[in-house]
Specification:
This protein is of the alpha/beta class. 47% of the residues lie in helices and 18% in strands. A five-stranded parallel sheet has the order 2-1-3-4-5, with helices on both faces.
Length: 137
């Protein structure tokens, strides 16, 4: 999967600054920012990102609810979503994957490895490969 544009959804300004800097400088990706669920839904539909990095807890919603919203609309159902969270018990990670998340990145994350971690998660996710094939057909 070729990543060009990432939707970064997080309400923490420090996380947004660090992640955006790394995604743009190391990944050479365009970054679209959303700070809450409503902004994320609008940006996902209009910007059509290749990937969504989604904070698990937002002021107006939670990650699983927002993921369900993305999956319920034709325009966003194919977009891979990676949760960013401090909640990383093995049982929780398995639950996120059952929700059709492409993976989980632990907060705090290593800024220098953020892009490579995203690439590894995306390349290992079967649903991402299936969606990429369906979109190219």
């Amino acid at each position: 999967m070729d990543i060009r544009r990432v939707l970064l959804v997080d309400d923490d300004p420090a996380i947004r600054r660090i992640a955006q800097f790394c995604l743009e400088r190391i990944g050479n990706w365009q970054v679209v920012i959303a700070t809450n669920g409503a902004e994320a839904i609008a940006a996902a539909r209009t910007e059509q990102p290749d990937l969504i990095l989604l904070d698990f807890r937002l002021p107006d919603t939670d990650g699983p609810s927002l993921l369900a919203e993305f999956r319920s609309h034709e325009a966003t159902r194919h977009i891979p979503v990676i949760f960013m969270t401090a909640r990383v018990q093995q049982s929780e990670i398995e639950e996120y994957r059952k929700l059709d998340a492409s993976g989980v990145i632990t907060k705090p994350f290593d800024p220098l490895n953020l892009v490579s971690e995203i690439k590894a998660l995306v390349s290992a996710c079967p649903s991402v490969k299936e969606n990429a094939l369906a979109r190219s057909a």
